[in-house]
Amino acid sequence: MINQVLYVWLRQVQGLLETSLTLISENKDIFIVILGVGIVPLTVRLFWWMLQQRRQRQILPDTFPFDVIKPQSKVLPAILGGDTNDPLADYKIPYQERISGRSIHDELKQKLDESRWVLILAPTGIGKTREAANLAQRLNTEGWTILHLKRGEWLDALPRFPEDKIGTDRKLLFFLDDLNSKIYGGRIEQSPKADEPLQRLNVPLQERLIRAIEFYEKSCRKEDIRVIATARNEKEREFTDEPSEWEKLEFDKYPALWKRFAIYELTEPEESAIISVLREAVSQAKIEANPDDYACLAQRNDHTFRNIVENLRSAKNNRQSLTRDTFRDTLKGTWEKRYQEVVKKYPIAPYIYDAVELLEMVGISLYPFTVKPTALLIADGNLLQRLQHWRKIRHAWNYLISKEHILEPREGQIEAKGRRVESIQYISPLSSLVLQLATKHSKKMLVSSLIFGFNAIKLGYSKEGIISINKTLETTQKLCKSNFGKEYVLENLEGYAYLGKGYALHKLGNLKEAITNYDKGLELKPNNYEAWSNRGSALRDLGHNKEAIISHDKAIQIKSNYYQAWHNRGIALLNLRLLEEAIVSFDKAIQIKPDFHEAWNNRGVVLLNLRLLEEAIVSFDKAIQIKPDFHEAWNNRGDALLNLRRLDESLACFDKALELKPDSWEALNNRGTVLLKLKNLDKALTCFNKAIQIQPNLHQAWNNRSIVLRKLGQFKEAITSCNKALEIQPTYYEASYNKGIALAMSGYLKQAIISFDKATQIKQDFHDNWYIRGLAFYDLGRLEEAITSFEEATKIKPNNADNFYSKACCYALQNKIDLAVESLKQAIKLNPEEYREIAKTDSAFDNLRGDNQFQALIQGDIN
């Protein structure tokens, strides 16, 4: 009776639910509003608050970057992973000697004993990790502790030996698997949205790895440290916009790391080894197969163990026999086929694959609680659509975990979808999600939130990055107040968090706050040379160049071959006009990194300032040779050629700079200057106008524009341009000088003299200003004041014929014949061809026509 009543009641509830769903579906827009602003959110929030009240804050786990495998442990399951119920889990696949009559295992052991650091190289699927793991198992049974590097953890040198993590054992074997993806997996290229990038704060793994292991070598006996690493060595690119697996390792860029390794290139397995795997794994997984087919399958196989295992897994998942018809000859295309099968079965799957790719790109660890909400974020939609997406994601999840192992993606598995996620469009919404996850799952999200913050900053989302980093700081500081005290891992994370926040604030232009955070971080990480150098850059941007040099010197003191610090030090010295010292710094940076194009360019800028123009061009050419699309170097090369009056070559350089960067206001202004010298006034004016349109506060372009307008006879507009230049930069003496010329040519001589006087106050040794000022007084008939100006001009340029000739004219008009003749004599001596002829007809010398000395001078009888 009770069961019947319960059944009737359940049927009524079912009918009610179906009616409700129909009602919601037909009136979804109304319900979206109601759900958005009505009682449901209040109920949900109340329920959530009650759960939060019951939830106790858990102590964060240690964020140690290694899985510690103590001696006498089961190493293969710990390293290779896999479900214990999966007969095809990697650690359960029987080990096979790949070459008959040869023990790869013993060869690797001998090489490790001899070199201590061994790097196993091979293409994907050959069995690198298996060989390395078996060797690790052997050492583990001999008393070695294995430190297996996890992905996504921040690795660096520690302030003290982590005895509480490792124990008292000092025989340590570092296991570094799949270095290609660990090195490259979390990188994001600089977005065009980002400002000019500062030095990187999330240091490449190559640098962190060597200094971390060197820390352990100093803490233990050097001979008690061993390193086994694996990496792919394919040299062909899978994607044209990404480096090959070999290029990802950057052997040439980090010789200090790679020279430590003895290289062991793993050979392909023989067919007999493949047959042995088939025989044992088929039996172990209880898959139907004909043993007579094994030799044929091994012959058809692509020489990898991985392809065999994936064929076996496909047969088991699809409940098929392993036959010649179902066997796929190569691993290539396997992931694509499996991806298509998954999508056919679960159309929501692409969002989950995209979520895995996105999270790996931005450095967030893969957990169900990170992947599922990220997939929902990517799927997007209105409230009802999101509810449907969430239900479908949950429905597909178990299959993707158990069959596709989506949280531990294999090489090529995620790439099989054939397209890339555009990470930039998700950074902002992902930032909010990371904040929520870091609150709810603080102990697992601590490092992820920090790395995400760094990557957000690199993409130009500094505000989002700061929010994520602040969450890391908040969590670490709460733990530091607990009974456990401030542990070394937390000190590292807190230090990096402050440094990352300083980096973000620096990019946002909050320089003082940036320096404050750099200082807090350096209290915890005093030997972080990158941070000392970044701090120096912030000080330089504040105009504190002397303090910046001290900061860069600190970086160099910690790491003498840190080329970025030498380079940044050179820029600060250049700003202080300490040009010879700047050259030394740039040369040092180039000595350490010969292909450092920025250093070659800035070295050229110093030489340009020293007027060593040919040498400057050599430096710019070197920068362009290294980076042909380096528009700044093309622009600077053009500037050097302009100073050498090689105008056509100069113009070609500015054209190239503008081809590479059409909105380069520097190149536009410089191109206009060349065209002005070539008397192509209309095109010059167009260049200056474009430069001003891009950079309205470019006072040089306003001044140059005034020169063109003056030459076009548009004096009023020329004066307006000079006024704009002076409004932007009141101490810009060239603008006062050009304004004076435009006023003089307009007939406003007295106002012109006021402008010349202002230019003189700013720059006392400006020859042309003194000379033109003298001409203005001359035209006003104020000859004594004109002579005074010409005398000042002569002090600056003693061998300038114009000064002497103009003084001669003044003296002649004053009837001071001897002084006039003497001055004219000096002018003709300096420029005989021009001034002897001019003096013959110049009315200023009418009073001297009867003077014998004057006649002898203009006739050439005396010199």
UniProtKB/TrEMBL annotation:
<feature type="repeat" description="TPR">
    <location>
        <begin position="563"/>
        <end position="596"/>
    </location>
</feature>
<dbReference type="Pfam" id="PF00515">
    <property type="entry name" value="TPR_1"/>
</dbReference>
<keyword id="KW-0802">TPR repeat</keyword>
<dbReference type="Pfam" id="PF13414">
    <property type="entry name" value="TPR_11"/>
</dbReference>
<feature type="repeat" description="TPR">
    <location>
        <begin position="767"/>
        <end position="800"/>
    </location>
</feature>
<dbReference type="Pfam" id="PF13432">
    <property type="entry name" value="TPR_16"/>
</dbReference>
<keyword id="KW-0677">Repeat</keyword>
<feature type="repeat" description="TPR">
    <location>
        <begin position="631"/>
        <end position="664"/>
    </location>
</feature>
<keyword id="KW-1133">Transmembrane helix</keyword>
<dbReference type="InterPro" id="IPR051685">
    <property type="entry name" value="Ycf3/AcsC/BcsC/TPR_MFPF"/>
</dbReference>
<feature type="transmembrane region" description="Helical">
    <location>
        <begin position="30"/>
        <end position="51"/>
    </location>
</feature>
<feature type="repeat" description="TPR">
    <location>
        <begin position="495"/>
        <end position="528"/>
    </location>
</feature>
<feature type="repeat" description="TPR">
    <location>
        <begin position="665"/>
        <end position="698"/>
    </location>
</feature>
<keyword id="KW-0812">Transmembrane</keyword>
<keyword id="KW-0472">Membrane</keyword>
<dbReference type="InterPro" id="IPR027417">
    <property type="entry name" value="P-loop_NTPase"/>
</dbReference>
<feature type="repeat" description="TPR">
    <location>
        <begin position="597"/>
        <end position="630"/>
    </location>
</feature>
<feature type="repeat" description="TPR">
    <location>
        <begin position="801"/>
        <end position="834"/>
    </location>
</feature>
<feature type="repeat" description="TPR">
    <location>
        <begin position="699"/>
        <end position="732"/>
    </location>
</feature>
<protein>
    <submittedName>
        <fullName>Tetratricopeptide repeat family</fullName>
    </submittedName>
</protein>
<dbReference type="InterPro" id="IPR019734">
    <property type="entry name" value="TPR_rpt"/>
</dbReference>
<dbReference type="InterPro" id="IPR011990">
    <property type="entry name" value="TPR-like_helical_dom_sf"/>
</dbReference>
